[in-house]
């Protein structure tokens, strides 16, 4: 339990996830002080409910912080990674659709600061990944298909979570295929289907609130300050596994 609130920078603050993070942080003032909310276009009034807003172009001038949380877009990722590496501060990022070069930059920066990138911060999806790997191991030769559904504004496809589930299936020996649906305001649904002759198994996760991702990211962010440089995982931080 922190006695002094952690100073957090929220990157992508005006977005769906950024807004959920700001709301949850405001609900726990003993744990969190938002010292910078960074967004592509900040509001005209630069301080909103005590939170100072900065434009992405002003990132270099933000005040000191203990940890940064990034839920932006791939084009916003490099600057926030560079900021954290330069200032020696930890970063939690849930931004999906990163290019391979950006993943390599993340690996390189993890030699300087503690970092955690996850395609999904929900506990349910962490368990789903375990189930998918076990099912794939037990069902050699079955077809494996991953169908993901998200709101119409989502930019990347397949989703980062679908790709992570695919990696779990591959570890179990399956060769997954992907399908993506973009419809309405769906927060996020992932169906992993294993189909054999005359039978099939469907494993489904449905997110009905973005708060599950925001809570997971805040939980992870509270555990990074003071740690050694490295690339941390949700499983490692939350469940002590690696
Ligand atoms: P959104 O479009 O609602 O918000 C994006 C935010 O990023 C906005 O505040 C925008 O101003 C900011 N932004 C865009 N370009 C920027 C730049 N160049 N520099 C700084 N800020 C910039 O998106 P969202 O639904 O909030 O999702 C954000 C990201 O998080 C997406 O990549 C999404 O796939 C991912 N996501 C991850 C998880 C997870 O658990 N890992 C969960 C939900 C969403």
The CATH H-level homologous superfamily of the largest domain: NAD(P)-binding Rossmann-like Domain
Main sheet? 8 strands, mixed
List each distinct ligand once.
Answer: nicotinamide-adenine-dinucleotide
Order of strands side by side in the largest beta sheet? 3-4-2-1-5-6-7-12
Helical run tally = 7
Helix content: 25-40%
Instruction: List unreliable stretches of 5+ residues.
Output: none
Measured distance between first and last alpha carbons: 23 Å
Radius of gyration: 19 Å
Structural class: alpha/beta
**CATH fold-level name of the largest domain:** Rossmann fold
Mean pLDDT: 95
Describe this structure in words.
This protein is α/β, with parallel strands linked by helices. It has 2 domains: 6-117 and 211-239, NAD(P)-binding Rossmann-like Domain (Rossmann fold); 123-207, Dihydrodipicolinate Reductase, domain 2. Helix content is 34%, strand content 27%. It is built from 7 helices and 12 strands. The protein has helices at 16-27, 74-87, 100-109, 123-138, 160-171, 211-223, 234-239, and strands spanning 6-11, 32-39, 47-48, 51-55, 67-70, 91-93, 114-117, 143-150, 177-182, 188-195, 200-207, 230-232. It has an 8-stranded mixed sheet, with helices on both faces. It has a 4-stranded mixed sheet with strand order 9-8-10-11, covered by helices on one side. Helix 2 packs parallel to helix 3. The longest helix has 16 residues, at 123-138. It starts with 5 loop residues before the first strand and ends with a helix. Nicotinamide-adenine-dinucleotide is lined by residues 12-18, 38-40, 56, 71-73, 75-76, 94-97, 118-121, 213.
